[in-house]
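The pair is quoted verbatim as follows:
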Amino acid sequence: MDLSGRLAVVTGCTSGIGLETMRVLALRGAYVVGTGRTLEKAQAACRGIRGVTTPVALELGEPESVLACAEAIRSLDTPIDILVCNAGMRAWDYRAVNGIEAQFAVNHLGHFLLVNRLLDRLFVAWQGRIVVVSSRTAYRDVPPGGIDFGGLDDPAAFAGGHAYGQSKLANALFSLELARRLKGTRITSNALHPGVIDTEIDRGVAAPLQAAFGLYTALFGKNVQQGAATSCHVATSPELGAVSGEFFEDCNPVRIRGDNYLRDTSLAERLWEFSVEQLRPWLVEHRRPDWDEIGRRLRPARG
């Protein structure tokens, strides 16, 4: 596959499936912007990649950092063909970011803001793709109702597994609602479960739990290359140019049986409204491009 001439953005490029996703896209000719929590970490990751890459700092829990990252990408003055929302964190104790539980703030709200700030550059791509890395915890381990909006600022309501699960459900529902709002455009949005992989997302978890998880993934999980395969497939496959609003596993769209909230459109809309309220000072409004106007700009002037 030749991705020459395409610009891809991959958040969380410094390790794990983010690093592997950046490697594969760059190897196939895409110009990849890779983000890390610090510029130094992003630079180190990009130096080890064969192809054209640019490192950018992005701390998803800090809106000003998200804005600075978006402006750095926008300064390239080119359409964005692929945006992979991959970065994330996991914690087993309550932490707050701007008054909101940290996993929800970083995994969901940070990416919500980044997509908002870059969306106009996806509009002008030939076929923009938004890929949101979620998890099977989005349908296996969430609180009653899917997302406990009232408990996001309450340490007493915190439950480690549920907190991570609802943040990944938020990823999936964000993608679902984004797909609905972008219907009729050339932008698609899909979410995915990459598989059970031993990555640095558990760096904040106690050592015994990390060791147990590492053993489990060695026996029953995927390696990093296998884990990144679904992200790369959803981001690039010609067969998926018109596929949007789906949840992928093992490179295929799936329908999860049983009770779950993956396709709960009312919850997705409520999540969108909640996210807008949390991020209102930093959001921008978008209007769909006037393609006739863009076409006139591209036509050579007549003498």
